[in-house]
Design goal:
This protein is α/β, with parallel strands linked by helices. The protein has a single domain, classed as NAD(P)-binding Rossmann-like Domain (Rossmann fold), CATH 3.40.50. It is 34% helix and 20% strand. The protein is built from 9 helices and 16 strands. The strands form 5 sheets. Strands 3-2-1-4-5-7-13 form a 7-stranded parallel beta sheet, sandwiched between helices. The chain is globular. InterPro entries: Epimerase_deHydtase (IPR001509), Lipid_A_modif_metabolic_enz (IPR050177), NAD(P)-bd_dom_sf (IPR036291). Pfam families: Epimerase.
Length: 299
């Protein structure tokens, strides 16, 4: 198997490269950064939006590149996630295309309760990120495999865990909603497993999460325990959290710095966000492990 991985200098892409190489596959890694240490996997810097395509022939492409921010200039988010995806498809004609999308394509304005793949896309989104990822899915439909993870965590995470740890203040971890809120999380190892299966699996859209949903409270306590942080989760009501997030976003527009809390983040934590992974289990042979945070002290 000769496979190209985009976004290889990032969190998910780096894990995919190492796992594919460990299987003995020939891996070609591409990313925006000038250099990346991928354990011997050959790496090429390639700007998917503005750069020239590499001109390589591969059996499959695992497209992990894109903007993962929920805050920033919409034009840049759109370019990275839509233009970049279209350019990745065009650069490898005839290859199986595996597109790493997101559960943010589901309706952000109501709870997502064991959602099946047919429930997205929707007509409106809370920000440019959700809208752009939905449009990127439309750009690759056909013979592609589209994977929809939710809240990816694991070694090397630069988004979810750092944001969580920044919320710890004076022995309290500020959260929103309720500790009983059910969430589907996706370990990076489970997502990698799905990516590799998708290179030879049937085309289609697949939710990709850990084996079962967990409660927000249990997940937060597990992370705090593994990181040896003496803090207790304190939950803000959704309405109050939304008002605080709106104020934080207004301040961010003035200062130019990302808000500590966004309405998008509140919407993903305050209500249930769970996904049905039956299709991935059946069609891809996806057999994920449970949510676990062992080893989080070194992440």
């Amino acid at each position: 198997m000769r496979v190209a991985v985009t976004g290889a200098s990032g969190f998910v892409g780096g894990h995919v490269c190492r796992a594919a190489a460990a299987r003995g596959w020939e891996v070609l890694a591409f990313g925006r950064r000038p250099h990346a240490d991928l354990g011997g996997v050959p790496y090429t810097s390639w700007d998917l939006v503005h750069g020239e395509p590499p001109g390589e022939r591969v059996d499959a492409v695992i497209h992990c590149a894109g903007s993962v921010t929920d805050w920033g200039p919409p034009a840049e988010i759109w370019e990275a996630n839509v233009t970049g995806t279209r350019n990745a498809v065009a650069a490898f004609p005839g290859a199986r295309f595996v597109h790493v999308s997101t559960a943010s394509v589901y309706d952000p304005f109501r709870p997502t309760v064991m959602a099946t793949e047919s429930e997205a896309p929707v007509r409106r989104y809370a920000n440019a990120y959700g809208a752009a990822k939905a449009s990127a899915e439309h750009a690759v439909r056909g013979d592609a495999v589209i994977l929809r993870p939710h809240a990816i965590y694991g070694s090397g995470d630069t988004t979810l865990l750092p944001r969580l740890l920044r919320s710890v203040r004076a022995g309290r971890l500020l959260a929103v909603g309720s500790g009983a809120t059910r969430l589907s999380l996706t370990s990076v190892d489970n997502l990698v497993r799905a990516c590799l299966l998708a290179t030879t699996g049937p085309p289609g859209v697949y939710n990709v999460t850990d084996s079962e949903p967990v409660t927000l409270g249990s997940a937060l306590r597990a992370v705090l325990r593994e990181r040896d942080i003496d803090a207790e989760p304190v939950y803000l009501a959704q309405g109050l959290a939304m008002r605080l997030a709106a104020l934080a976003e207004t301040a961010a527009l003035i200062t130019g710095r990302p808000p500590r809390l966004s309405r998008y983040a509140v919407g993903h934590l305050a209500v249930e966000r769970t996904l049905d992974i039956t299709r991935a289990r059946k069609d891809l042979g996806y057999d994920p492990t449970p949510t676990a945070f062992e080893g989080a002290a070194s992440w």
